[in-house]
Amino acid sequence: MQLKSTFRAAVAAFALGTAALGAVSLTLMATPAEAAARAPVAKALQEAIRLAGAGNFAGAKAAVGQAESVGGLTSGDREAIDQVKNYIAQKSGAAGGKGGLISDYNAGRYSDVIAAGQRGGLDAQSMVLVAQAYYLSHNYSGCTRYIRNNFGSGAGENMLVMLQRCAYENQDNENQRYALEQLVQRTNKPEYWSQLLDTAQGTKGISDHGTLDIYRLKLMTGTIKKADDYMLLAQLALQLGFAAESQTVIQKGIAAKVLTMDSRLGRLVNMAKGQAGANAANFGRLMKTGNGDQLVKLGEDAWGQGRAADALKLIKAGIAKGVSDKSDAQIRLGMALLATGQKADAIRAFASADGAPKVQVIAHLWEIYARTH
To answer: Domain 192-372 is in which class?
Structure first.
């Protein structure tokens, strides 16, 4: 699993920072801030590093505050801010005589580190060590609780990776999904999207239509890589009546040099071509006589063909006529709104899909996609 190598890298980074406590190179800390952050953020962080190196921790924290006050922080800005916060915590921790906790951690006395965490009053870097101590002592539920209770919405990328890993080891799907959602929304990295979508596939009772949405999002987020995934997406689209979309998926798979034409793919291409022709022939009749569900489906088919304006018109008309599944119709409405550039309205549509949990999971994935693209 991709997460394991990511998590090992995060742990290695934490351990390196701990071993070098009090002797972190100013240049090494400044470089990532400069590389990842925008100019006004990087400037404030460079000043924070300088002040912390001189022992002026209050001034350093104030400079970080200036960096955080810059509008529209990017994922690179936040990552750099987290790095500098950790540097300040390391420097101030060493100055404050917290070597005992670090010694306990380095000696593997994790129960003592956890006890210090339960007493509270620790700086950010010490809290990182406590979370690691929970993980390394295989107390995964304690790790999850500690991170959620002590870091909350302020957890950085590495800490969210640890939260996800602890939840995974504890088979805690709720916190695993929470951590991945936060990672996706903060970084929009394909590897986190891939893990989130794979987790969503395990939702109990998910329908074929829900699975189709997950694979659509895999394609849209650039996380679909294997021939079998392209084939499954194309087959699901065809099975559910979206033949033109199936054809498009096949073309994209071939263009990506993942799919190659063979007898199996040839049969799928011919089936999609035949159904697409039948759909086109029936379009006019269904436009005039179709009920609300049929109009919504026509709109979803138009979405798969890239006809966003037509999709929106058809789906709105279907909802106005009345539909049997209002939550699913809101998801289709959100897809069309997003495709026409109406992001805020799309987010509202996805958020209003309040059906069964298996439907809400799909709607929430679309909402996260809308917020991050």
So the answer is: mainly alpha
